[in-house]
Specification:
Elements: E1 3-9, H1 30-37, H2 44-49, H3 51-59, E2 71-75, H4 84-91, H5 108-118, E3 123-127, H6 130-144, E4 148-151, E5 156-162, H7 168-185, E6 189-198, E7 201-204, E8 209-212, H8 219-225, E9 229-233, H9 236-239, E10 247-249, H10 254-266, E11 273-279, H11 281-287, H12 292-309, E12 317-322, E13 341-346, E14 353-357, H13 362-371
Parallel strand pairs: 1-11, 1-12, 2-14, 3-4, 5-6, 9-10, 9-11
Antiparallel strand pairs: 2-13, 4-5, 6-7, 6-8, 12-13
Helix pairs in contact: 1-12, 5-7, 10-12, 11-12
Length: 385
């Protein structure tokens, strides 16, 4: 039975995209700037696999002379955005060519409709960092018991509440009620942002939940319709609103995601399987918070885990490492950055230069070839021979 492992290193970009200037991200480069900023930063397994070669390819620089253990390339996004949903949907073969709706502040009639459906009154309603919003409105929320409504540069409705004031299930119900409105308004995600603590010392918990718009058909649907088990690890099922996902393993952090991947790979399988994982800590904990040292440490930890995975690989498994966008921790602001992302692929063929690819969707096309399912109607060109 064939297997494939697709790991999205959330926000691990490798250099500004050709259209980055139109997003305000000209010269953003997540991995390169971490290399330049953090002393003694080393990720030997990723670099041997081809990460540094992918960076050089993206930048138009001479490639390293050493052979790589994986085939390597650089993926260019064609979706009209630089957010999680667009990146993952494009990876799965359905680029978002019509932009999702974004706001600096939600119109009052829209807020009133959300309040009516959810049975609450919101405070806030402006674009802000998730940690700063707690500093600004956390105490008021605790006093009034009204949930905090905010947004960001992404197409997102974010709703924060203290777990001791609004229980998790109630917060999820509020988000679910707002999701119906978000579908009509073409807003990509509604995100529950629970937190704990006291004024002056609030912290977000791992109990976040994303409520996403239902995607168009993706390679996940094609695979599951053909009897191939599609297993989501992390927030994958939430990003695709469960569409095309056979089973899901939500996670609280990268370490748990890696443990689950190890467990899934060790299981005897009666059918072919795609394991599709998102490791979110790079983005959530370090990219948005502009923490190069923390980002570097997280990459080192993943690199160590990758070193334990490599000896287990054989020709019966396709392994792809990539990202969904950038989030340069040295770049101004706290939003994603429009970047190319790495393509590192372990295939039965000899490792080679896969070049600069025209779309993230080349991953979907390659999965279709690997599992021998029809790809007609989906985007992308396979890099698997």
């Amino acid at each position: 039975m064939k297997q494939a492992l697709l790991i999205v290193l959330d926000s691990v970009g490798i250099g500004y995209a050709p259209d980055a200037a139109s997003f305000g991200d000209h010269e953003a480069n997540t991995v390169r700037h971490i290399r330049e900023t953090v002393a003694e930063f080393r990720i030997p397994h990723l670099d041997t696999a081809g990460l540094r070669a992918s960076e050089c390819l993206s930048a138009g620089e001479p490639l390293p002379t050493d052979d790589t253990s994986f085939s390597f390339g650089a993926l260019t996004e064609i979706s009209a955005g630089k957010d999680t949903t667009a990146g993952h949907w494009e990876i799965a073969g359905s680029p978002v060519l019509e932009p999702f709706q974004t706001y600096d502040r939600f119109p009052r009639p829209l807020v009133s409709e959300m309040e009516s459906r959810a049975g609450v009154n919101f405070i806030g309603n402006y674009a802000q960092s998730g940690t700063l919003i707690l500093e600004e409105l956390g105490e008021r929320h605790c006093r009034t018991k009204n949930p905090i409504l905010y947004t960001s540069a992404d197409s997102v409705i974010q709703i924060a509440a203290h777990e001791d004031i609004i229980p998790l299930e109630s917060l999820y119900e509020i988000c679910h009620a707002c999701r119906r409105i978000a579908d009509r308004e073409r807003i990509g995600r509604v995100i529950a942002r629970p937190f704990i603590g006291e004024p002056g010392n609030f912290s977000r918990t791992p109990n976040r939940r994303d409520f996403s718009m239902l995607p168009p058909e993706t390679v996940l649907n094609r695979l599951s319709d053909n009897g191939i088990q599609t297993t989501g690890v992390g927030k994958i099922s939430e990003i695709f609103a469960g569409s095309g996902i056979s089973r899901s393993y939500p996670t609280k952090n990268n370490a748990e995601g890696c443990r689950i991947i190890d467990k899934l790979l060790a299981e005897p399988s009666a059918s072919s399987q795609l394991i599709f994982a998102n490791l979110v800590d790079f983005d959530t904990l370090f990219g948005h918070r502009r923490d190069p040292s923390g980002y570097a440490a997280a990459l080192r930890v993943f690199d160590e885990w990758l070193g334990t995975l490599l000896p287990k690989l054989d020709d019966e498994i396709l392994v792809i490492l990539t990202a969904d966008h950038g989030n340069d921790p040295t770049w101004p602001g706290n939003d994603h950055t429009r970047e190319r992302v790495p393509l590192l692929a372990h295939t039965p063929q000899k490792s080679r230069n896969l070049g600069i690819r025209e779309s993230y969707a080349d991953i979907a096309a390659s999965l279709s070839v690997w599992f021998d399912v029809d790809h007609n109607g989906l985007a992308g060109k396979s890099f698997i021979e």
